[in-house]
C-alpha cells in the first residue's frame, strides 16, 4: 500500500507541474498577442492622408520670365523640326540614288551611230536595249513613194513626216507589232519590210499595209546632234 500511495502522489505532483507550465505558456502567448494587437492598433497607413494634394515644384521652376521660356521652347522645337527634315531628305535622297540605274545601264540607254558609213538605199540593223533597230538611208524615190500614199486609208493612219525627223533617214524598232518577230528588210509587197512568221507587210515608211499586225513599226526616241551622227535614246 505504501508503494501505491507513493506512485499516486508522484503522478499527481507531475500533473500539477505540467498544468502550471501550460498555464504559464498560455498566459505568455496571450500577452504576446495583446502586444501585437496593440502595435497593430497604433499603425497608421501612409494612404490615410489626403493624396490629392499637389506637390510643390516651386524650387524647380525657372527664374526667367515666361516670354523667355516660350522663346527657348520655340527655338528647340524649330531646331528639332529642321534636323528631322534634313535627316528625312538625306534618307530619301540615298534611297533614290540606290534605286537609280547603274552606269552600265545608262551606257546602254543611248547608242550613237555614224551615218557616213550607211550608203543611200541601204539598211543597217543595230542593237539598242536588247532590241533590233532598223536604220534606212532612203533614196528620193522612196521618200516620194512614202508621201504619195493616202495615209488616212491605212490601218494605223500616220503620215510619213510624222515618222521621220529627216526624210532621208528612217529609224524604227525592228520588232513586228503582231507577235514580236523581226521582219526582213527590202521584202514584201510594198518594198519595205516583211514578217515571214505570219505574213505582215510594211511599206517603205514602216507602216502596216497587209497582214495581221495591228500597228506600224514603232519609232524610238532619237536625235541628230550633227549631220553625220545619230543618237538613239
UniProtKB/TrEMBL annotation:
GO-annotated cellular components: mitochondrial inner membrane
Cofactor note: Binds 1 [2Fe-2S] cluster per subunit.
Keyword Oxidoreductase belongs to the record: no
SUPFAM superfamilies xref list: ISP domain, ISP transmembrane anchor
Main subcellular location: mitochondrion
Record keywords: 2Fe-2S, Disulfide bond, Electron transport, Iron, Iron-sulfur, Membrane, Metal-binding, Mitochondrion, Mitochondrion inner membrane, Respiratory chain, Transit peptide, Translocase, Transmembrane, Transmembrane helix, Transport
Catalysed conversion reaction: a quinol + 2 Fe(III)-[cytochrome c](out) = a quinone + 2 Fe(II)-[cytochrome c](out) + 2 H(+)(out)
Cofactor: [2Fe-2S] cluster
Residues in Rieske domain copies: 163-231
Molecular function terms, GO-annotated: 2 iron, 2 sulfur cluster binding; metal ion binding; quinol-cytochrome-c reductase activity
Compartment(s) of residence: Mitochondrion inner membrane
Membrane-topology annotation of the record: Single-pass membrane protein
Note from the entry: The Rieske protein is a high potential 2Fe-2S protein.
Similarity remark: Belongs to the Rieske iron-sulfur protein family.
Name the UniProt record assigns to this protein: Cytochrome b-c1 complex subunit Rieske, mitochondrial
Amino acid at each position: 500500500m505504501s508503494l501505491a500511495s507513493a506512485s499516486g502522489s508522484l503522478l499527481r505532483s507531475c500533473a500539477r507541474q505540467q498544468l502550471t507550465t501550460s498555464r504559464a505558456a498560455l498566459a505568455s502567448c496571450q500577452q504576446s498577442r495583446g502586444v501585437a494587437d496593440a502595435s497593430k492598433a497604433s499603425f497608421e497607413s501612409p494612404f490615410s492622408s489626403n493624396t490629392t494634394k499637389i506637390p510643390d515644384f516651386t524650387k524647380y521652376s525657372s527664374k526667367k520670365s515666361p516670354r523667355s521660356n516660350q522663346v527657348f521652347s520655340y527655338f528647340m522645337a524649330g531646331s528639332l523640326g529642321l534636323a528631322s527634315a534634313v535627316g528625312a531628305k538625306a534618307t530619301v535622297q540615298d534611297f533614290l540614288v540606290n534605286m537609280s540605274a547603274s552606269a552600265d545601264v545608262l551606257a546602254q540607254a543611248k547608242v550613237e551611230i555614224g551615218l557616213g558609213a550607211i550608203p543611200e538605199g541601204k539598211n543597217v540593223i543595230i542593237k539598242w536595249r536588247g532590241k533590233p533597230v532598223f536604220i534606212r538611208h532612203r533614196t528620193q524615190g522612196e521618200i516620194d513613194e512614202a508621201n504619195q500614199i493616202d495615209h488616212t486609208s491605212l490601218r494605223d493612219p500616220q503620215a510619213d513626216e510624222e515618222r521621220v525627223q529627216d526624210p532621208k533617214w528612217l529609224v524604227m524598232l525592228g520588232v513586228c507589232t503582231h507577235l514580236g518577230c523581226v521582219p526582213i528588210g527590202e521584202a514584201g509587197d510594198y518594198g519595205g519590210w516583211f514578217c515571214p512568221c505570219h505574213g505582215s507587210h510594211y511599206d517603205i515608211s514602216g507602216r502596216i499595209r497587209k497582214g495581221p499586225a495591228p500597228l506600224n513599226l514603232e519609232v524610238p526616241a532619237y536625235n541628230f546632234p550633227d549631220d553625220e551622227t545619230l543618237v538613239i535614246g
